[in-house]
Amino acid sequence: MNNEPANTNFQKYFWVSGLTALAVLAGIVTLNYLIDPYFIHQWDTALIKRLSPAQQKISPWPKTYAAYRYQPDVVYLGSSRTEIGLPTDSPLLKDQRVLNLALSGASLGDSINMLKHTSYFHRPKMVIWGLDFGWQFRKKTGNTDFNTSLIAQDSWYPLKRTFLNLKRSISMAMSTDTVKMVLGFSEQSCPSLLASYGQKSAQCLELIMQDEGGAAKAFEKIITKGDPQAKPADVSTTMQQLDKVTRDYCQAGTAFRFFFHPVHALAELSYWGNELQALDQWKQQLAQMMDQRKQEGCDIRLMDFSGFNAVTTETIPQQTGKNSMQYYWEHSHYRSEVGQEMLKGLLADSNRKGSSNFGVELTGSTIEQHLANFQNQREQYCRTHIAETRNIIFCNTINRNN
Amino acid sequence: MIFNSFSFLFLFFPLTLVGFFLLGRKNRQWAAMWIVLASLLFYCFWDYRYLPLLLASIVFNYFVGQRIIAENQPHRKRWLTMAIAINLLLLCFFKYVNFFIGSINGIFNEHLQTLQLIVPIGISFFTFTQISFLVDAYYKKVTAVNFVHYLLFVSYFPYIVAGPVLHHQEMLPQFNDPNKYKPDANNLAAGLTLFIFGLSKKLLLADNLVPIIDSMFAHDQPQFLQAWIGMLAYSFQLYFDFSGYSDMAIGVSRCLGFQLPLNFNSPYKANSISDFWQRWHISLSRFLRNYLYIPLGGNRQGQLSRYRNLLLTMLLGGLWHGANWTFVVWGGLHGLYLCIQHGWQFWMGKRAEAPHRIIDGATRVLTLLAVLIAWCFFRAPNVASALDVLAGMIGANGISLVSEITPFGSLMLITGAAIAFMMPNTNEIVLYFDRYYKQGLPVFSMFRLNWSPTVSWGLLTGLLLALCLLSMERTNDFIYAQF
């Protein structure tokens, strides 16, 4: 290096350092943009058929882009349970453009933002929305990395989005993944989210479950320690938000199908054992909200697939000796086949009773009986599954009292 | 807003710079006011709710300073006492009241409610900066001060969040210097380079060490290798994070033409604890020495009172960092180290002055070890966790040689060690030709590396800048911003 500062040329120094930075960045951004390892600007391109790693990163990016380009008629909202469990190829929706816009780790705020975003381009005819009590029922963002700048707010969105995509490409992590892909070191083993219209494919889930030790290992935690979930924060504010969203969209003609996920009975008891009263109250409030919307002329329904039905009480791997289950990936996430059944219930004529006992529609007139049944079934399940429920606080109380 | 954000780099800073020099051509007072406005805006981006507090503190201290300058004894002393008391009360209220309540609850088994307080950003820095101004005004080291310059001195955005602790004697004369209001290519080139080096320390080194540290502190009782790797990583993270911030602050200010005091000078190359404190957070050490240790009596009243003053100074210095017993223990440990060092030197007499090269090397290792042990308390959420880590470091939690460190983590750790122990520091590299900074301490580097605005240095800084921009997608806050 030159040690003579007196003879230096400052102007040249600025130019060289500035242009070097610019050239390196331009090269990397171009490569990232062309390879697009996270599918941040793909829809009707061949790239969406490319295989990707099982754990796809930053899913809000491809999903918001797909919503902008595809302009779906039917959208699914919710968390990873909806993203994994609800298929977009239901025969009941075969003539509709369906997109699963659920995000792993989404809060209610994230789901509302996603709805606002997709509606900016094309107001969906129907929204099918999976609700989780607890952590999802928060007002603000969840752990989705859902940057609010991804939400369309004006007609400049396409331009802004291009700028965002380019800015997103200025990233060390993305560059590393791009280089891995170019050099062939990247694990590319399952279809992209976009290839199955936003649903995480069974192929990806198989790989993830293999990595994580299978369903038996997932159930182990609940059996040995229980797995209480975080208490939902600020339920009243989020209920107000839900009330406003349903009111606004119903007035514009959008139909809603809300549902509670069929998490496994053990998970249901373990998650909310300390919050059962709050959970029941919340269901009552939602049922009232549905009635009110219906009175206003809205096509809206709320179904409860959780509880103690044939699906949710499936025998766990610890009892069967198998490492996989018919209906579940693990205690919280159910398979696509269950989702198909749920769609049948959700999309059936509300006056026509379905053939199975899977899923109960909640209204102001049915909710009290439903909750009473639920409480009996909870207690019954504890009594008949003493070994599996020995570390679940709620069941311990029930079994001790007997 | 933080230095390592796109909005600072591509909007706030360029606009501030251009506005300053354009206004500086017309009217220096306007230019100074422009930086004041920029500084207040910068402060608001952190937390606008405390802007009135900052402004009230500035106006109050300026007014009292003027009274102290104008009054005669005994009024001068009354003004000074009252002002220092109010400054310290304000600092204690925001920073320590919950700590005191928590301690009372713990000791006396009470259930007093803690207050819902947010510590105003930079309160430790702007309080100390202003106390030194008041004390010097009392000792007639300050003459009349222009209010806008005072406002600029206290709210100056490069330092307000995480220092260095400024001294009016090195800043106010610069604000009066007409030449400082003209753009200078030398300042711009050196300032930007220093900024990029600081940014690189933060983004490419400090932030990449975080996973190693988090992984170690995730264990309740880390084992031998985990504890050592975790604490070494934390030592480097803290150094690169804080010295990176200081480099950025000095660099930004240098672009504007104003020189901030040095804050770091290769502290991990220190050969004693007192040497460490002349190299680590130099501006705070200077403040503690001049405004606490010396007023307490320093070493003027014999060895025993010297040790007492050292301990007291370091305990309060520890508490300055945060309202937690861990910081008190950390400060106390450093006080103890200093007492041992001075006791040893007192006992050895002249034999301690020129040690053999091997002894000198051993003292550097010993100093580093002592610093590392003290960092356990600085990082841990409570004293019990720190003791767990220390237990891990002596193998009391098991001596598994299996570590969770990734190859990338290992690379970061080795790079950090090489830079901290062997390379010249950024100030030595960038500011070697600057007379102002040449007063730095002698350093122990394996080689010299002198920056000058040449094509090869341009290529290197350009590449570093590109890598930093690529790493800005996710950044961690500066550790010292919480103090």
Description:
The complex is a heterodimer of chains A (402) and B (483). Chain A has 402 residues and is α/β, with parallel strands linked by helices. Chain A has helices spanning 10-35, 60-70, 80-85, 108-121, 157-168, 172-183, 202-212, 214-224, 235-251, 265-272, 276-295, 317-320, 336-347, 367-384, 393-401, and strands at residues 51-52, 74-77, 98-100, 126-131, 190-191, 255-260, 300-304, 360-361. Chain A has 2 domains: 13-196, no CATH class; 213-402, no CATH class. Chain A has a 6-stranded mixed sheet with strand order 3-2-4-6-7-8, with helices on both faces. The radius of gyration of chain A is 24 Å and the shape is globular. Mean pLDDT of chain A is 87; it is low at 1-7. Chain B is mainly alpha-helical and 483 residues long. Chain B folds into 2 domains: 6-183, no CATH class; 186-482, no CATH class. Helices cover 68% and strands 0% of the residues of chain B. In chain B, helix 3 runs parallel beside helix 5 and helix 4 packs antiparallel against helix 5 (123-138). The longest helix of chain B is centred in the first third of the chain and has 34 residues, at 75-108. Chain B starts with 5 loop residues before the first helix and ends in a 13-residue tail after the last helix. Chain A binds chain B through residues 1-5, 8-25, 28, 167-168, 170-175, and chain B through 6, 185-186, 188-189, 192-193, 196, 433, 449-459, 461-463, 465-467, 469-474.
List the topology elements.
The complex is a heterodimer of chains A (402) and B (483).
Chain A: H1 10-35, E1 51-52, H2 60-70, E2 74-77, H3 80-85, E3 98-100, H4 108-121, E4 126-131, H5 157-168, H6 172-183, E5 190-191, H7 202-212, H8 214-224, H9 235-251, E6 255-260, H10 265-272, H11 276-295, E7 300-304, H12 317-320, H13 336-347, E8 360-361, H14 367-384, H15 393-401
Parallel strand pairs in A: 2-3, 2-4, 4-6, 6-7
Antiparallel strand pairs in A: 1-5, 7-8
Chain B: H1 6-26, H2 28-47, H3 51-70, H4 75-108, H5 123-138, H6 147-155, H7 157-160, H8 168-176, H9 185-217, H10 224-256, H11 273-277, H12 282-293, H13 303-321, H14 325-348, H15 357-379, H16 383-393, H17 407-421, H18 426-430, H19 455-470
